[in-house]
Amino acid sequence: MSFFHGLTLEVFPAHLTNSLAQPFMSYLSSALLLGSVAVQHILGNTAATPPTSDLESFIQRQYPIAYDGVLCNIGSEGCQAQGSSPGVVIASPSREDPPYFYTWTRDSGLVFKSLVDIFVDKFDPALQDKIQQYVASTAQLQGVSNPSGELWNGEGLGEAKFNVDLTAFTGDWGRPQRDGPALRAIAIIGYAKWLISNGHASTAEDVLWPVVQNDLAYVAQYWYNKYTLV
């Protein structure tokens, strides 16, 4: 456990990162259906049903394609993410010209915020596995020393990107990028709320909260600072 400016940082226990890779609850039967595109009633004519627009039809057709494409970019089983650690979101499968086979804290947080929303709408054990792997990989990344700093003083949490094997990227880059921890915390908090609502408050408190606490401590400490080139 470390401290910076009065805020507590939790070092995630190794046994919890290992346990997160395995499902820790029995599968639940879902009574929720994935919502369809909402259609407003025509004012004054509730009996009429507006025709589905071309845009709505496109969204419905594209949704499963886009969803599969996102999963394809998540390690370690994603078709485009071979060689990356479980729960890691790759920015691109391109390894040269340009080299973007890395994982960004910001991008990963945005991706898993969307995936958590989907999971909350409809229980999916396979998707839950990926969310748990993301939490575990986040816990590990928080402790990785990097050019932005360390965990003990909080500065390392602002590192923009990492190698897909959860090691530090030490090349030149614009760092730190301070929105990453906030976006990551939002994603994990969404999953924690689902755990609490479904009778797993102890898991949310013991496993997820230490990770979220680190990121929130960083946000509270550095939200007003600009990034510098390192």
Quick synopsis:
By secondary structure, the chain is mainly alpha-helical.
Structural write-up:
The structure is a single chain. This protein has a domain at 102-229. The chain has 230 residues and is mainly alpha-helical. The chain is built from 6 helices and 6 strands. The chain starts with a strand and ends with a strand. Strand 1 (2-4) and strand 2 form a beta hairpin. The radius of gyration is 20 Å and the shape is globular. The strands form 3 sheets. Strands 1-2 form a two-stranded antiparallel sheet. Strands 3-4 form a two-stranded antiparallel ribbon. Strands 5-6 form a two-stranded antiparallel ribbon. Its EC number is 3.2.1.3. InterPro entries: 6-hairpin_glycosidase_sf, 6hp_glycosidase-like_sf, GH15-like, Glucoamylase. It comes from Verticillium longisporum (Verticillium dahliae var. longisporum). Belongs to the glycosyl hydrolase 15 family.
Q: Give the ordered list of helices and strands.
A: EEHHEHHEEHHE
* First-to-last CA distance: 27 Å
Number of helices: 6
Helix content: 40-55%
Strand order of the largest sheet: 1-2
Q: Total strand count, please?
A: 6
In terms of quaternary structure, the protein is single chain
Strand content: 5-15%
Report low-confidence residues grouped into runs of 5 or more.
Answer: 1-8, 12-47
Computed CA radius of gyration, to the nearest angstrom: 20 Å
* Mean pLDDT across all amino acids: 82
How is the biggest beta sheet arranged? 2 strands, antiparallel
Structural class of the helix and strand makeup?
A: mainly alpha
Coarse morphology: globular
